[in-house]
Q: What sequence folds into this?
């Protein structure tokens, strides 16, 4: 049974940093891309970042380029989203996803105070 466990959210002041984690059980990220999405109430889920497990190519949404960075650990079972210089508009529930599959983490809440 495949499960994704997202964690690392919390309350941070604007300009601060958080690192989100997405731990997988039941598979490794071999041959998959891992993505982070975020959603605020009343808005559609937004793609934030994506990394391919093999060649570690990364893609970022325009709103987070230069501030966020994705990585995967050597075991290929945990993905990370390092978020720096956080802004109030980054506040959302963040979800990890094995891109293109039905596997989603449960969401972790990021709150950014101004």
A:
């Amino acid at each position: 049974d495949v499960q994704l466990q997202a964690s690392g959210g919390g309350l941070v002041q604007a300009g601060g940093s958080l690192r989100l984690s997405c731990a997988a059980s039941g598979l490794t990220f071999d041959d998959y891309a891992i993505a982070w999405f975020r959603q605020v109430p009343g808005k559609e889920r937004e793609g934030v970042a994506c990394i391919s497990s093999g060649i570690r190519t990364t893609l970022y949404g325009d709103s987070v380029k230069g501030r966020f960075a994705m990585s995967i650990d050597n075991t290929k079972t945990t993905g990370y989203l390092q978020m720096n210089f956080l802004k109030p508009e980054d506040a959302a529930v963040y979800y990890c996803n094995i891109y293109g599959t039905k596997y989603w983490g449960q969401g972790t809440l990021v709150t950014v105070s101004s």
About this structure: Strands lie at 3-7, 10-13, 18-25, 33-39, 46-52, 58-60, 68-72, 78-83, 92-98, 108-113. The longest strand covers residues 18-25.
